[in-house]
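User: Sorry, folds how?
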Amino acid sequence: MREWRIDLPFTKPVTLNDRMIWQVKHTHRKRWRAAAKTGARQAGIPELAKFTVVFHYRPIDNRRRDTDNLVQSLKWMVDGLVDAGVCIDDDPTHYRLTEPVIHGATRPRQPGQLWLVVRDLGDEPGTQTLLPLERTDA
């Protein structure tokens, strides 16, 4: 299985619990999409027929966190990967949602860390693209 790591320039994710006006949310969305797009291009990720993304978060402390709250940031980054040409779309035919991973806290006084692992699912059974059959009636 081929995979690529993209380190993100942020220290904390935008979560579903964050309340913000639409202008602030729009600014965050643009920054997260751009970071994923840039990271994908720097990592040299080719166009994939089917892929998944594992979003990793190492917070600054060990408070309880829900992985599903990270889906807001994940959605924007998957959109950025599509913008980068990693795949033609993030619909269920091309993209499989994977639960984010929250790691133990960083060392004291260290900022949080965020990264993506993009995995090629093109070799997985049932994900290969069918080639058109040649016509033999001539």
